Amino acid sequence: MGGLTGFVGALLEAWQEVRVHRTRVLLSLIGVAVAVCSLTTVVALGAIVQQANQELSERQGGRPATLYVSAFRLNGTIDPADMDAAWSKTLERYDISYASRVQNTVQLVPFATGSVQVGTQAVDQPFGEMHRVRLVEGSWFSPTDEQQLAPRLIVNEVFWDRMGRPPLESHPVVALGGDGVPGATSGIPAGGTLAVIIGVTPASTWETEPTMIMLARHAEAMQKAAAGERGSAAAAADPYGGGGAPQSQYEMWVPPELADALTAAVTRDLQGALGDGTEVNVSRQDWAQYGDDPFLVTKLVVIGIAVLVLLLGALGLVNIALVTVKQRVREIGIRRSFGATAGRVFFAVMMESVVATVVAGALGVVAAILIVQSPAMRDLVGQGMVSDFPPFPVDAAITGLIAATAVGALAGLLPALVAVRVKVIDAIRY
Amino acid sequence: MSLLHLEDVTRTVIPPDQPALTILSGVNLTIEPGDHVSIVGRSGSGKSTLLNLLGLLDLPTSGVISFDDRPIKSYSGARRDRLRGASIGFVFQQFNLLAGRTALENVTMPLLYSSGRTFWRRKKIAAEMLELVGLGHRMNSMPDRLSGGEQQRVAIARSLVRGPRLILADEPTGALDLDTGQSVMELIDDVAERTGAAQVVITHDPMIARRARRHFRLDRGILTPVDDPAFEPLTRREMREMSPVEPSATAEDRDRDVLELFGVPEPAAPDAPERKDA
Predict the structure, then answer these.
(1) How far apart are CA B28 and CA B10, in angstroms?
(2) For residue B239, what pLDDT band results from cuts at 50, 70 and 90?
(3) Cβ contacts of residue A253 below 8 Å, gap of 6+?
(4) What are the extents of the domains in chain A?
(5) Is A339 in Cβ contact with B116 (below 8 Å)?
(6) Domain ranges of chain B
(7) Residues in A touching B85 (Cβ below 8 Å)
(8) Is the pLDDT of residue A97 over 60?
(9) Beta bridge partners of residue B12, listed in sequence order
């Protein structure tokens, strides 16, 4: 009972103090609130910047853990059909659903201003998820798009601009592999194969050339059709007179904890399937392949700035606390003369500081959430590179509140220590 | 059983880089329940130090201070604080009301250090105490909106709100005009008489000092009883009929008068060692 009344009494004292000295408290609160808001904002924005960097890395090298698979023979070549079969079998064996072939080639596309060789990436449907492909219009390939006779295309904004930015709801088409193909007499109709554009990827400011993505199955069908009149496998794989068959790359997205085991297993299985003399290389190229945190420097810089901001806030609070210590000595002397124990005075003075800073910290965190979650700030920090904006980091909010409490305790410590050392009668007669 | 007993109490302080300075020397004093004691002394005579000791705010360098016949050295610091809160009420010269708090909040303050029913009923108790000192209509007034006499009455209500057994009044009328001072002292005497609380008053005012039944003077740290017939205690009737001192009398004049009456010598010569209250 005594403990409860002591605690309630100390809280009441702290609240009275906050109420009576509201101007001073408000001033210190503003300093702490701004400091905590800055700290929390910086930590949260740091998380977004990290996410932006991470997503940028994942667009290039895939998400952790992405295994890149390649195979070659020291003498001779591997039949792409054999490689595809061995690949499919491996995926099936280990129940890997996120896997894709990646083939880079070019296709001649007729635009209103003339035909242009367009860099083309032929991939499997899961590629979009594996590489966080972001679209500004339309949608990524659906699993059933492979069954469509007309190839589906995802083009970049440069491509789309050259077409006059037609609405995707109107199912705009382009002719691929038509008469414009140099030296080709293919199985593709003279007018070309009509491909439907279903999505548009954003183009960076430095991108000036059109590019497009199509499904590997459609690309393969077109190559086979083109090869029908040229009669050789090599020509079929390279119907446009280039320098040989385009090489497919293979990649799979697997749980990071299984990456090492799968690397060994896939290497072994593919070597077995493709026969002696085959070299199979399976390796990771995602950002998380390195043991060290690649974003450590970013984090350290962010934390360093946050700590500096907080120290500035704490300095302001301690400054005000020091100035008011003398004013409080008399009051503390009076309280001591009426029975306040040293512990009670210490607790009440600390509580006053902590209660005030926790309230300020909470306000600072709320302000930080509003700032960080605002679309304008997200656009500014994300620079259009973040597709999965991280939710407001809880640890940033907790860090802010803990920092506020710590600052309050620290700033309250000095006056509290002074308070318990007060010589009561001297303080009262001061 | 005595309420407070000081036996051969000495208090010495050691200033930095200076020899030890004895502030109080061989003080003997017994306060009985319901007692009324006055103490006079010049600045630097050790009044503050004595007040610290009487209020259990400090411990003697040597000698024994007992409260209810129990040496206070046997109490822990926190227990001594609680004993002080429950048993001793302070009335200060400068009122020392907490700024920014209403009269009611000021009187409630000591009850924040109580427990049980007293703690939870603190506002009601404080309001009753303010009614008792005639300030029921000023409960929500801030100290700076109250007259000096009203402020001192709030201070008295605050010192009495926990029903102390000892009231320590440190020049309680020093900041009041004579009429108001008399009425404030009547209030303290009245409440003390009703509650049976003992009073120790440190004052320069002869009229205030005469209200006490026993008189002491403090000079250079030595406390001596004063048996001058001029300090025979006033009767209640005398107290009521007592006319104020000439209004033109300054505080210094009154101080000099009372010190002369108490036989306290003039201030020490300039070459005498300087003394300072601890």
Answers:
(1) 10
(2) low
(3) A62, A63, A65, A66, A96, A98, A99, A126, A129, A130
(4) 2-58+293-429, 65-289
(5) no
(6) 33-57+77-262
(7) 338-340
(8) yes
(9) B22
Which pLDDT tens digit goes with each residue over A125-165? 999 988 888 888 999 999 899 888 889 999 999 999 998 89
State the number of CA atoms in the 13 A half-sphere of B151 facing the CB.
Answer: 22
- pLDDT tens digits for range A34-57: 878 887 887 787 777 777 777 777
pLDDT at B46: 86
Chain A positions touching B86 (Cβ under 8 A) are 339
Chain B residues within an 8 Å CB radius of A337:
55, 57, 84, 90
- Please report which confidence band the pLDDT of residue B230 belongs to, taking 50, 70 and 90 as the band edges: low
The alpha-carbon gap from A1 to the nearest alpha carbon of chain B, in Å, equals 7
A12 and B CB contact within 8 Å: yes
Adjacent-strand bridge partners of A214: A122, A153
What chain A residue is nearest to B278 in terms of C-alpha separation?
Answer: A426
Q: Among the residues of A213-341, which ranges form H helices?
A: 216-227, 233-237, 259-274, 296-337
As assigned by CATH, the class of the B33-57+77-262 domain is alpha beta
Print burial letters for A328-363: b (CB count within 10 Å at least 16), e (below 16).
bbbbbbbbbbbbbbbebbbbbbbbbbbbbbbbbbbb
Identify the CA nearest to A219 among candidates A146, A144, A156, A157: A146
**Residue linked to tokens 């199979």:** A280
Collapsing DSSP to helix, strand or coil, B199 comes out as strand
Task: Report the pLDDT averaged over residues A255-282.
Answer: 86
Substitution target from B113, B115, B171 for chain A, most A beta carbons within 10 A: B113
Whole-number Å distance between alpha carbons of B176 and A350: 36
What is the number of other CB atoms lying within 10 angstroms of the CB of residue B241?
9
**A167-224 pLDDT, tens digit each:** 999 999 888 865 544 444 445 555 568 899 999 998 877 788 999 999 998 888 887 7
> What is the C-alpha separation between A168 and B273, in angstroms, rounded?
102
* pLDDT band of B248, cuts 50, 70, 90: very low
Cβ–Cβ < 8 Å for A246, A237: yes
The DSSP 8-state label assigned to residue B231 in this structure reads G
Residues 6+ apart with CB under 8 A from B161: B107, B108, B110, B111, B125, B126, B129
Residues on chain B bordering chain A, Cβ-to-Cβ distance under 8 angstroms:
48, 51-52, 55, 57-58, 77-78, 81-82, 84-86, 90, 92, 94, 96, 98-101, 105, 109-110, 112-116, 119-120, 158, 162, 170, 277
Residue A213's closest CA among A235, A234, A197?
Answer: A197
Q: Which two tokens stand for residue B24?
A: 């109080």
Q: In the numeric block, which tokens belong to residue A27? A: 């001033």
Answer whether B100 sits within 8 Å of A6, measured CB to CB.
no
What is the predicted ipTM? 0.77
Using the Cβ of A327 and the Cβ atoms of chain B, whether some distance falls under 8 Å is answered with no
Cβ contact A337–B84 (<8 Å): yes
Q: How far apart are CA A252 and CA A63, in angstroms?
A: 10
| Interacting residues of A365 by C-beta distance below 8 A, sequence separation 6+ | A36, A37, A40, A397, A400, A401
Nearest CA distance, B245 vs chain A (angstrom): 27
B-chain residue closest to A14, CA distance: B112
For CA atoms A402, A408, A412, A413, give the dihedral sign: positive
Cβ neighbours for B240, distance < 8 A, ≥ 6 positions apart: B186
Do the Cβ atoms of A335 and B109 come within 8 Å? Answer: yes
Check pLDDT > 60 for residue A375: yes
For B113, the closest of A9, A20, A330 (CB atoms) is A9
pTM attached to this predicted model = 0.58
- Show the DSSP H helices in A62-125 as ranges: 80-93
SS3 A189: coil
